[in-house]
Specification:
Layout (H helix, E strand, L loop, with lengths): L3 H9 L23 H7 L25 E2 L3 E8 L2 E7 L2 E3 L7 E2 L3 E5 L17 E6 L4 E6 L3 E2 L2 E2 L3 E5 L13 E2 L3 E7 L2 E6 L3 E2 L2 E2 L3 E5 L13 E2 L7 E7 L3 E7 L2 E2 L2 E2 L3 E5 L6 E2 L2 E2 L15 E6 L5 E6 L12 E6 L4 E2 L4 E4 L5 E6 L4 E5 L3 E2 L13 E2 L3 E4 L21 E5 L2 E5 L4 E2 L2 E2 L3 E5 L7
Parallel strand pairs: 25-29
Antiparallel strand pairs: 1-4, 2-3, 3-6, 4-5, 7-8, 8-11, 9-10, 12-15, 13-14, 14-17, 15-16, 18-21, 19-20, 20-23, 21-22, 23-24, 26-27, 27-28, 28-30, 31-32, 32-35, 33-34, 36-37, 37-40, 38-39
Length: 447
């Protein structure tokens, strides 16, 4: 097993290229082959990963223009051109500096530059929004646990126009048996994760790829998560790189192969197949009421590594409960984390990797806390509700804006202008920012 101190020492030995981020060919205690030739070949026929690389850590002072969500919780963001779309479970919003309350049913949009809420985009959904993805031509994909959007039927997944909130009727995936909790899109391919069982009349358990225009199920992607710990197969989060889809959730197998709670899918292959990458990092148990404890994950720009965050209630340096952990994408065989950062017993729900930092959010009190047991152990640093980790060393960065903890951060979105943060509380960076905030980036990011 690994400890927080050991994992940080190993990470410190890894070479770093220009900039802060590092992509390494070596993983501790795991098989160490880097499939570089296959990685280079994939770049010729798979679109570039669209994550934004920041050259610096964002400011700790939020912008003053973001709207306020007056109740509930924010679960997801999408950026469509210059428009931010916000999804969650709430009923009212207000522009910054205004007293006028606007009714919005779990979904609204605003101009990124000004914070002005779009008046024409106010669709009514009969359930919570759990996932968003930018569409083409001023549209947004909306996933969640709902059966109608506006006056039209929409089972768990819809494509809406930002101009008026209406559905794009040609898109009809017909998700049944559960909710859509995560989305990722590239071109004509839209990936969906959740706890559903059918898509478009085709059996698809918790994971599917559909045509982004029609919603038709893609027969070349039929990866099956299975053998859940908690009784129901569920995908919590997905993240897409140029040739890999990272998947975490309540499952212990992918296509019958052992992949406890986390796996990679080779989406450059036709048909898609489970990548020869596996980890035992999440085989262990946390508290009994958390049979599955993985939550958010995100690829670094370029896709060379990704970071997973967890809940679980367990404590101690020998577990991955309540942690953030980095993994190398192109290692193969049995892979161990490059580093693990422990909160000491508090949940992390969301992560955003920008190259300059790994931003983590939950209701944590500390980072760098492998020996904490619901307390600050030796070396722990206070990072209430939000923090940043050095991508190479795995240690907490000095960035510490603070956040009212509440349930926790349920949404991050890194973009060229900075970092969006969505949660259930109203204090961010020592200021009033109800459930939505943005930390700006003063240095122009790399394209």
């Amino acid at each position: 097993m690994f400890t927080g101190i050991t994992s940080v020492l190993v990470a410190a030995l890894l070479p770093a290229p220009a900039g802060v981020a590092a992509t390494t060919d070596t993983v501790r205690h795991g098989a160490i082959r880097h499939d570089a030739a296959r990685h280079r070949a994939a770049q010729h026929h798979v679109a570039r990963h669209d994550a934004v690389r920041h050259r610096a850590v964002v400011s700790a002072d939020p912008v003053d223009t973001t709207p306020h969500v007056l109740d509930g919780i924010v679960n997801a963001f999408a950026l469509v051109g210059g428009t931010v779309v916000v999804g969650g479970s709430f009923g009212a919003v207000r522009e910054a500096g205004s007293t006028r309350v606007l009714a919005r049913s779990g979904l609204f949009a605003y101009e990124q530059a000004t914070g002005r809420v779009l008046p024409g985009f106010a669709p009514h959904l009969d359930g919570p929004v759990l996932a968003l993805a930018a569409g083409a031509h001023g549209t947004v994909y909306v996933g969640g646990r709902f059966s109608a959007a506006g006056d039209a039927r929409a089972l768990g997944l819809a494509l809406l126009r930002l101009s008026d909130g209406s559905q794009v009727t040609g898109f009809d995936p017909r998700v049944r048996g559960g909710a859509v909790t995560s989305l990722a899109r590239r071109g004509r391919q839209l990936y969906a994760g959740g706890d559903f069982t059918w898509v478009g009349g085709v059996r698809r358990t918790a994971l599917a790829r559909v045509d982004a225009v029609t919603g038709a199920v893609d027969p070349r992607f039929a990866i099956r998560p299975g053998a859940p710990r908690g009784g129901r197969t569920r995908v919590h989060a997905i993240s897409l790189s140029r040739d890999r889809l990272a998947v975490d959730g309540d499952f212990t197998t992918l296509d019958g192969l052992s992949r406890p709670q986390l796996g990679l899918v080779d989406v450059a292959a036709a048909p898609a197949r489970v990548a020869p990458w596996r980890t035992r990092a999440y085989r262990g148990r946390c508290r009994d009421d958390f049979p599955s404890y993985v939550r958010g994950l995100d690829f670094a720009p370029g896709g060379g590594y990704f970071v997973v965050v967890t809940t679980g209630g367990g404590v101690g340096a020998h577990t991955t409960c309540d942690t953030a952990a980095r993994f190398e994408t192109y290692a193969s065989g049995e892979v161990s984390p490059t580093w693990v950062n422990h909160t000491g017993g508090d949940s992390l729900y969301s992560v955003a990797v920008t190259g300059a930092a790994v931003y983590v959010g939950g209701h944590q009190r500390w980072l760098d806390n492998p020996r904490g047991r619901d307390s600050a152990g030796p070396g722990a640093v206070e990072r209430p509700g939000i923090g940043a980790i050095h991508p190479r060393t795995g240690r907490a960065l000095g960035w510490n804006p603070t956040r009212e903890r509440g349930i926790g951060v349920k949404a991050f979105l890194a973009h060229r202008g900075g970092l969006l943060v969505g949660s259930d509380t109203t204090r961010l960076g020592h200021e009033y920012h109800a459930r939505v905030g943005m930390f700006p980036l003063s240095i122009t990011p790399d394209s």
